[in-house]
Amino acid sequence: MTPPKPDPVIHVIDDEAPFRRSLVFLLESSGWTACEHDSAESFLAAPPILPTAGGCLVLDIRMPRISGLELQRRLTALNSPWPIIFMTGHGDVDLAVQAMKDGAVDFLQKPFKDQAFLDTIERAVELSRTRQQASRRCNDARALLDRLSPRETEVARHLALGLSNKEIGRELAISDNTVHVHRQHVMEKTATGSAAELARLILRADPNGLDG
Amino acid sequence: MDVRSFSFARLCALLVALWPTVAGAGDLRIGVLAWFGDQTAATQWQRLGAALQAQLPATTVHIAYHDMNGLENALAAGELDFIITNPGHYVVLESRHRATRIATQKIEPDRDSEHAVGSAVIVPSERSDLQTLDDLRGRRIAATVPDGFSGWLTVWAELKRRDIDPENEEVTPVFAGLPMSRVLETLERGEVDAGILRVCLLEHLVRQGRLPAGRYRVLSPQEPDAPCLRSTPTYPGWAFAAAVQTPDALARAVLVALLSLNGREDVLRWGVPADYHPVHAMLRDLQVAPYDFLRAHRLEAQIRRYWPIGAGLLVLLVLWLFYTLRVEVMVQRRTRELSAALAARDEIEESMQAQRQKMEHLSRLSVLGELSGTLAHELNQPLATIGNYARSLTRRLTAGKLSDAAVAQAAQEIAEQAERAAGILEGIRNFARKRASQREDCDAGKLVGEIVTLFRGMLARAPEIRIEDRLPDERRKVRVDRLQIQQVLLNLMKNALDAHCAIGRAGEPIEILLAPAGERTKITVRDHGPGLAEADGTRLFEPFFTTKPDGMGLGLSICKGIVEAHAGQLVAAPPDDGHGLCLSFTLPSAATPHHDAT
Asked: What interface predicted TM-score (ipTM) does this complex get?
């Protein structure tokens, strides 16, 4: 278990020890904090949490038993936030394309330039930070929306869709005044001042939150 | 007449009385040699004819006069019953016509007889340089005719006895012809240094006053006190001989008549047949008739006499030569054909060998090619690692935070990776190199170990390869072409890996078993793949047969060739336990002599 650190963490997963060590050495030369794993299994045995400062995974696409692609699938299933960079050998382009479709950040064909590698790491770590922030805002929005009662949630959704009090009352078969009271509670609880603001909050919590 | 000859005469008279009819039987034909011409001879021999006629009244005596050839021809033609001739000529006729002498003319040694047989060589008395016959060397000498007995042959024999050979031109005879007086004429003219006369002729001529006494001198006189001087021995006198067809009775009658003659004259004095051996000896020595064949012996006679044998030998020689030549030509042709055939065979073998080597090389390259994808990856790994460390060091240096520990770690890693890359390249280069086949003794386990290392080195993630070595210590060595056998093993391992990949289990271990098999060493490569369909089993080792979509199909067919060149066999068989395939072959042990097929 990697303890949470303020720095971003790069995990290198490759069964080729010398090469793996050389990548760690390179990353450390550029000031990154790097961890190494000799197989997918050892990584999955204790999956590290993505630090607030971000980080990424560097995976060899071909590994015995659990390959890089397989590890990617398992992490996706776990909703892992780690951005993944694949390293491929000559002639593994098909595998690389599949990896990109499955959400990989990038792939590097060996042998690769150290600068290209480090740039890709930089980009992935940046992406991880962005994802961290997006995730955090979503969680905040959900926390606000979770404070609403079921009736208030319904009223909030209709408000976000731009309906008037009268229209909401007719829709929900309640009086205008009742709608007005619920509206005031929603605004207070979500600390929003307008229907447009409320709509953004709902979408932040759930991109599909306003559908049908 | 002495008592003995008188008794003989009486005996002969008695014989005549016993066959009275024989004497009266017709004509009695006598041929006489006349060297002075018929007329002279007739006057000489007339008295003998008359005397015989008187002795033999019942017959009519005819006397004919001939020269030598004429006499011989008449005798040969059967025209004569008897002949009278000189000793030399008689010997000839005796040999050629089987004439038989019945009496010999009696010449008293002390008598000056014109029938004496022997020769005197005369020179002008003033020629003081000519004292003996030996002095005649290099001179010219006058003779009568080449076959004249007293006129040439007797002197020739005497000269030859003194090692003066007229035939070697050590003395030159000049033949003046008959009568003998021509010899004197030639000598008178000074054309010659000496002349040959029959014995007593010189004395006769002097006595008749036809030559002044002392005008000529006789060389090498044999008996200086004799009435007639002679330079040669005397020979038996003239012969009275019967022709071959003359009846014995007639011969006897004539003999008796001859012996009964009585008179002072030479022609009437006949005695018992003399021994003509000296004449024979002389003529044989001179190699003249009848011994002329001896002369011929020396020259063309040999050829004439033996020409059938000679010709036969020649024919045989020619045949033998022809045969020998023919045999020689055939042997040469066969040899040429054979060596041409051998050369052609060698050429074919050589080109086949070259082709095989090329194919082997190709197959090695082909195996390498099939492995090259992972090979590139494998080489990239150490190179990339090295690059990473080098750049890392640069970065740390630039950042001013290069620690000794970091340098040490990077240097260590770089060195290891460089060695690893070099090792991979070396193995491949050795393997891919073009080369001629060469046998060496090597440890079978080591051989397998090396190629397994190369195989694993060429693969990014090589499967486990389990080597089970059951070879006892004394059976470890095999005599093989190391690279060829490693090529076979590499192919078999590659096949095993492909078989595993085909069922998606690339990580399955490959098993290699080394075990003694009789005198040889058996190596088996076993996989756990899908095995072999029965139909493929028969075609497995054919060139260009492959079950792989990207294979060339040359690998196993070349492996088979290599194994067979090591007097072994490449066999595919299902394993005893479980699924998969066993490919096995045997190798000659180092100590075992084996047939070298390559």
From this structure: 0.71
